[in-house]
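Objective 1.3, modelling of assemblies. Example input:
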Amino acid sequence: MKTASLSLRNLTRRPGRTWALVLLTGFLSLSLFAGSVVVMSLQSGLNSLEARLGADLIVVPKAAQSKASFQNIFLQGTVGAFYMDAELLDEIAATEGVAKAAPQTFLATLKADCCSSRLQVIGFDQQADFTVQPWIVQSSSRELGPMEVAVGSSISAGVGESIRIYQKSCPVVARLSATGTGLDTAVYCSMETMKTLLAAAEEMGVSHKVTADNSDGVISAVYVKVAEGADIDQVASSLASHPSWKTAVVQTRSMITGVSDGLAGVSSAVKVLIGAVWALAFVILLVVFALLMNERRREFAVLRLIGASRRKLARVILTETGLVCLLGGCLGVAVGAALVFPFTALIESTLNLPFLTPSWGRILLIAALSLAGTVLMGMLSSARTAWKLSRVDTGSILREGN
Amino acid sequence: MKKVSIPACFILVLSLLLAVGCATFLGPCAHEDGSVGACFWAGRALTGIGAVLAVQAVMALAVRSGRIRLGVYLSMLPAALFGLLTPGTLFSLCGMASMRCRAITQPAGMVLSGIIFVLACAGAVLDLKKNRKENP
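Predicted structure (tokens):
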């Protein structure tokens, strides 16, 4: 009889024992797969946030910092708006060390009919912008026209549909690629469209004026790219030192560092958890295989008597373990996928960190490595048993029963 | 001694989770203005589907005849499929992916219904094999 056939029969004859081992190894592969996907998604989310911020400094009204709303708009998709006088843009752009300055205006909608919830609308200057435009270019090759909007990946409205914002119909012309950040829940439009929407909001009683004679309009943030060779800290302090501006300067580096610290904490916790599960599972597998050895000594002694070589016996055990680990590994990966991928939005909001699922290629690689790791672990833990069982003293074992 | 059908045990637990969960901790949220959207009715439909599947699972556990149990397992398949399609396909949900109905109710309903579908298939195949062995 062939080794694989004998191993398969051994496994199917004792379904209870086989399923217990499958579940144990499944748990092993589930922890490795799900844990690795979560850690990699967090890393991808951080990289995406870094790429999307694009600027060195962001100038916002002082109120934005005190409400902690600016960072929340990026990370959690919190809806919020704060304004400063648009005249400040020219002064910021003229500050020494500033290479580029691009304004953005935020508008928080009332309940939008598309989404049963409030939406964050972000207006940007299509000529000056260097943060949103490169992202939009990936989905749409042309500029946004009057009243046209681009939506983040978390909004279900598709291209060709329209969103009503403050009673104004805005056709969706692009859906942006996912970033894993709060930016996925926002709607993007040109500054001209934003002016129309602000006027519509004003008509409905939602005021955005900084002062009563705020004729030049308002902006919410100015994204600043520091000139080559200029010191970011120095530019930040000169931008922050204007007492009349009533603005605060956010360094994107420190924002990313803050997120990165949070990510490092979660990643370490997940890694420790994976390590603990694997160490525990290895010990349990060693004990299980040692117990099985005692239970199956007579079975292997009989096999030796009817002519099975020691090498064949070792191969039978290793094949059994391999098959059990392969089945358990596949089960673990499937359960891990069912637990992680459908719940990414929940994981993102619970961890409060950017969360971007890796590409399918990388996910398949993680699945293959998890499977390989599970099979290897199973083989290692049964190797000692295989070696011992293949060296059974046939005579003494068979006499034990008499 | 009568052998307990393992897939039916798992289906009973999962369908109860679907029924109770979608009416409580897995259910969609109420809108800010107190109005009720399609997602609310999707949650109600999932609760109903979960209850039906739970009754079917109890029947699968109670009956002695393998043929009747096979029929019960087969009848679970369309119900589970309906559960799979209810959130998002047959009933529309909120537009924002971060909303509770899209972040919790939809994935939970689909995952639970999907697993119940697979278990019902497994139960049907096992019973079919058993029936063939007993009545060749």
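Chain A touches chain B through 23 residues (CB under 8 Å).
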